[in-house]
Design a protein that fits this description.
single chain; alpha+beta; TolA/TonB C-terminal domain; two-stranded antiparallel ribbon; 5 helices; 7 strands; 25% helix; rod-shaped
């Protein structure tokens, strides 16, 4: 094929031939490069790849949660206020009325003293009274009355109850600090004839023993009337129980 015929070929054929020649030259150059520098092609490829490397976009970091707003504090309930001071109480002035004094009407005394049973009344056995009765119309002491008049009372002259052995030990704590009062009937001979409890203690057994011992041990000078004659009378006796010092 002549040169003239090549130049007369159509442009499309000429372009294909040129591309073929260029490809052959590229292959020859690539073969030489691989023969003398086998890693050059890899570096070139890596350079081209790194040149066109595209970094993937990072996902945005999550934003920290916004702090929740503090709860709205409710307005404090207003404290109750003290009530206004009350009116001062002023006591009403009072006046104590003067005490009313009622005078009892005077009792007119009779011109003559009356007679009756007053001369024989009192704490005595049945018999002559202890009053100062008399005969006549005067108010003074008579001379022929049946009462004791200016006589004397009975007096104990002998006998004592002062030993703890006279009473039972079992009831000692019951009667200690207590007392009994008895009434003793004294005859005209000065001997007691009867005894009764007037004011009992907590120990009834001790009360009975007191009466029994009084009848057995006591002796009296009998009571007398205004004329000095012995009469029957009642004598009161109080018995107390207590611890002696040192017991």
């Amino acid at each position: 094929m002549s040169a003239g015929s090549d130049l007369s070929a159509p442009p499309r054929v000429r372009l294909g031939v040129a591309l073929l020649v260029a490809g052959l030259h590229s292959l020859a150059i690539l073969g030489l490069i691989r023969a003398f520098a086998p890693d050059l092609a890899g570096r070139a490829i890596d350079a081209v790849v790194s040149t066109f490397a595209v970094e993937a976009p990072r996902s945005p970091e999550p934003r920290p949660p916004e702090p929740s707003p503090p709860p709205k504090s409710s307005a404090p309930t207003p404290a109750g206020q003290a009530a206004p001071a009350g009116r001062r109480a002023v006591p009403r002035a009072t006046v104590t009325p003067p005490p009313r004094i009622t005078l009892a009407p005077p009792v007119a005394a009779p011109p003559v003293a009356a007679t009756g049973t007053a001369d024989t009344s009192g704490a005595r056995d049945q018999g002559a009274g202890t009053g100062a009765g008399g005969e006549g119309s005067g108010t003074g002491r008579g001379t022929a009355g049946t009462g004791q008049g200016g006589g004397s009372a009975a007096v104990k002259i002998a006998g004592e109850i002062n030993s703890a052995r006279d009473y039972p030990i079992a009831t000692r704590d019951l009667r200690i600090g207590d007392r009994v009062i008895v009434a003793i009937t004294v005859g005209t001979d000065g001997r007691p004839s009867a005894c009764r409890v007037v004011r009992p203690s907590r120990d009834a057994q001790a009360d009975a023993i007191t009466c029994r011992l009084a009848l057995a041990r006591f002796r009296f000078r009998p009571a007398t009337d205004g004329a000095g004659t012995p009469v029957v009378s009642v004598f009161g006796w109080q018995q107390r129980w207590f611890y002696r010092g040192g017991e």
